[in-house]
Amino acid sequence: MSGPKTLFDKIWESHVVAENDDGTTLLYIDKHLIHEVTSWTGFEKMAEDGRPVRRPDATLGVPDHSIPTRNRAAGVEGIGDPLGRSQVEALIENCETFGVPLIPLTDVRQGIVHIIGPEQGLTLPGATLVCGDSHTATHGAFGCLAFGIGSSEVEHVLATQTLNQKRPRNMRITVAGDLPAGITGKDMILAIIGEIGTAGGTGHVVEYAGPAIRALSMEGRMTVCNMTIEGGARAGLIAPDETTFAYLKGRPMAPSGAAWDQAMAYWRTLASDEGAAYDKEATIQASDIAPQITWGTSPEDVIPVTGRTPDPAEAPDEKHREAIAQALEYMALEPDSPIEGVAVDRVFIGSCTNGRIEDLRAAAAVAKGRKVPAGVGAMVVPGSGLVKQQAEEEGLDRIFLEAGFEWRDPGCSMCIAMNDDKLAPGERCASTSNRNFKGRQGRAGRTHLVSPAMAAAAAVSGRFVDVRELLD
Amino acid sequence: MRTFTTLSGPAAALPMINVDTDQLIPKQYLTAISRAGLGKGLFHDFRYDMEDKELPDFVLNRPPWREAGILIAGENFGCGSSREHAPWALEDFGIRCVIAPSFADIFFNNCVKNGILLVTLPEEDANLLMADAGNSQTCQMTVDLEAQTVTRSNGETVAFEIEPFRKHRLLNGLDDIGITMAKGAEIDAFEAKQKTAQPWLYGG
Fold first, then answer.
1. Distance from CA of A458 to the nearest CA of B (A)
2. How far, in Å, CA of A103 to CA of A89, rounded?
3. Contact between A38 and B26 using a beta-carbon 8 Å cutoff
4. Does the beta-carbon distance from A263 to B75 stay under 8 Å?
5. In angstroms, rounded to a whole number, what is the distance separating the alpha carbons of residues A415 and A459?
6. Is the pTM of this model over 0.95?
């Protein structure tokens, strides 16, 4: 292919090992992150077949999904659930057997797989990265082609360092103008999903562009790319720039010295060429974005905090009428009613979407000097041990504890609720995570997705409020 | 991998859009280190009440759909998490074909790897089959992958499209890893070239 290329085209084309006869591409994978939930089956079969891991140096394991967020010093012994514990033990044993580096539970670098990859400098521009987790899209914030895969594909990558893939199409989402004060990357991506729908990006890799994207920090960009999967696309991309390079420089696994200069020269060539063609485009105006909140059971069920729930009677067709009615019933909300003022039982601040230092700072700024009312349970779960450490150095833990939040150890926690951090039936939660699916945070639990600042505002108010009213 | 050629049996109707993988198999089934018995968890929250007793109204708890081998669903089926437990649960329950107007990407790939055929049909055709599946008198169907048809109980057929590479893999039950391992020399050559051009990606 000649002519102007997109960022995606460049990364894809530089990783083609072979074009298969059947129209798929054998794609080389540079980096592979593994965790306890989706890797055991691959290792089991590799052992059966007597196959080694092709590139242990390109693979990194970390436990994050099935682990408790208390009593971390006890390590594996501290995992109360015998099943979760055996999963983590299997990960440790498999990494040892196959020579794969592992960040253990008690290591300060331990954390959610999508937080630690960038933090360690493993996530690099122009590279391909996969993980058996759909939120692998996070790493696209660095101009790294990163996508989630299933367990069979995890095994394929462990054995061959490649994947057979059908080439996705290019989509560009431009966020024009500037984000208003108090509006975050989370509000931006929720607004985008509200616009394109949960299947809007299916079959595509989304490149985010425009001044509002450029103005985001790496943390904000990661939040945007993280939830690309909630818009149906497997991968989101943002072209690397000075913000990216400044974040990467000096990270333990990033190149250094002459290798850094060499890498930089290459990374600077990655941005999409002028005139490159996209198969699909969408544009949203940053200035139109208010703090967002989901009202239903799909991430596309999103409204501004100042908005009202939809009325099924106004749905375009029967299937949507039914879907809206069911979602409102599940969420115990009335049609055409304001979302502001709805009382919350629980607040969860954390996850691979919003468990980074900037997220905790934004939440702490709202929580500072305020109190979580009795009857509301609020918890902060840092995305990694290093995020936790930095937050404590900045005194954020004190702010949260004084306001009545719990301050936990890192992990996926109540985003997936595979440990004991979960909602009781009927509980309503303001959550900074990525999915408001029925039962996601506990059976019959009710999840509203919001930004960290909005979650903190809900925590200290005991109900959903417009965070802008609490900010000076 | 099991091959997929033809499949006949009752089809169950699940007239919902955006059915996500958390609905297909919830989190409490993800901590296991065995795939055995995942069929019990398929559509867990639809099938069981809070005391884990079967909800008699749910389609897969009723005859003849208790034996359903085919599922007809709404658009964007399988969205959400990458958990391969979703196709494992479908297969363990006995469902080896899902028909819908559209599917989420990761779920689609995971199904092919597990010998499950996903049939994407225009909404009109999917609605026709959904109506058939909803009635115990008309819910018997035959899916023929080679012919790319679904035969309704009245003998009429609905044709479907499928990408040749997916069809080929399903019909032959091909093991992807075995095929790729045979391309070891090409992978070696790629690595040698990349290691020179981008040495920072090696050795970490």
1. 26
2. 13
3. no
4. no
5. 17
6. yes
